[in-house]
């Protein structure tokens, strides 16, 4: 039987906690469940594969297209992908849903004010000062997802609570049992 993975796509504003939650879930799946997992992080892909792209709507879409292709490719080899991308437009998320065989969307919801207060990279400060243009949430929109599979409210729950909610969701969907069965 051929193994197939799935993609858990975490979308939300910068600073909402996407990567933090994705790392916690990835660590759990790798260490406790012994599953093949790959974290795809928007910042990392922009440093390596997508450094030719800016932040226009078209470039953001190309960024997501490339990430979706990588996620799909990894899934066909039995890898669980945790993709952490702002993915600000519904059109982009629809593209992912259409082009990744098993796509699960997690909206990491957090108010802009909380994201700004968590601004560990200093990006909001620079965007608010006009140093960064087309910054999502400041001078570029973030369209809330139409129909996410799971919503995490990271201003109301700890990263550990979010991790447990994701794992419970995957368990409820039967995905962890399926991946364990394919592994064994």
Automatic annotation (TrEMBL):
What is the protein name given in its UniProt record?
A: Adenylyl-sulfate kinase
Q: Which InterPro entries match?
A: APS, APS_kinase_dom, P-loop_NTPase, Sulf_AdTrans/APS_kinase
Concerning Pfam families, the annotation shows: APS_kinase
> Which biological pathway?
Sulfur metabolism; hydrogen sulfide biosynthesis; sulfite from sulfate: step 2/3
GO CC, any one term: cytoplasm
- Report the domain of life of the source organism: Bacteria
In alphabetical order, the GO MF annotations are: adenylylsulfate kinase activity; ATP binding; sulfate adenylyltransferase (ATP) activity
Q: Which UniProt keywords apply?
A: ATP-binding, Kinase, Nucleotide-binding, Phosphoprotein, Transferase
